[in-house]
Amino acid sequence: MFVLPVKSGRYFRMIQKRRSVAIVLGLVSSLFFALSFILNRMMSLSGGSWLWSASLRFLLMLPLLWVLVALRGGIRPLLRIMKADPVPWLLWGTVGFGIFYAPLTFAAKYGPSWLVAGTWQITIVAGMLVAPLLERRGNRQRIPGRAMLFSLVILAGVMVMQISQAASLTVPQLLAGTLPVLVAAFAYPVGNRMMMKVAGNRVDAQQRTLGMTLGSTPFWIVTAAAGFVVAGPPSGSLVFQSFLVAVTSGVIATTLFFKATDSARDDHQLLASVEATQAGEVLFALLGELILLDGKPPDGLACTGIALVIGGMLLHSKAGAKT
Q1: CB-hemisphere CA count at 13 Å for 237?
Q2: 214-247: per-residue pLDDT in tens?
Q3: How many structural domains compose the chain?
Q4: 183 lies in which domain range?
């Protein structure tokens, strides 16, 4: 008679631990993702073409991921799954990686890394908005009310940050630094969530990252060819910085984030909270901009926006861990 409560207590502690681990993984991934915003800004300021900085990240990621997956014997199972149904891997790999990352590198030309990272947090709202549309009609879940409320706090912070920068940028610059990020903010959760549905439990996080990289490779070859035509071959420093992005953001951050989202795939509240941990990129990008690029610190209005973004992230994480 007393066994069931003990087992139930252990079960719920296990679930609580799983949710806490998912959120911690999301936060750590946001640190490594922030490095890509900083390095993209560095490459842009040094005159490097955004076409090269975007394509080189994924072209350099490919052999690194291949070796990591091969060491665990995961290449053949992945290729067998992809060969059986290649179109979704090509489509959602291109959407989730190509249509996501190319606009972000383009936007790095027009604003500091913390501003791009802040605007990127719209992806948290985008992920919840597209989630019901990606489910079959009978399986659709309602958008969690609290999660949407906390995401709107983050969205308000993004708008405040944009207002703080409006005075120092022309309208075309502001649009060029904002609209591409909006495209990326929807492309990433759509590609990630659809790829989770296609792959299911047949692949792990590293295999899924490699599979999406393979699927997006044609897009990156075309982008690299355009970079060669427009700007010529990449410089040695551009290749090295792109390699750093490939390791930190492409391999480490993406794998950690996919592990977190995989563990939350059946819990929309937790999945929204994991996606909300990416708001940590704003703080990490701001610190990196100030330390590495000697950037101009944000003014009072921008700091208010950053505080709203981080506050919304903390509310999300707390709600996700205790759901």
Answers
A1: 10
A2: 999 999 999 999 999 998 999 898 999 999 989 9
A3: 1
A4: 22-322
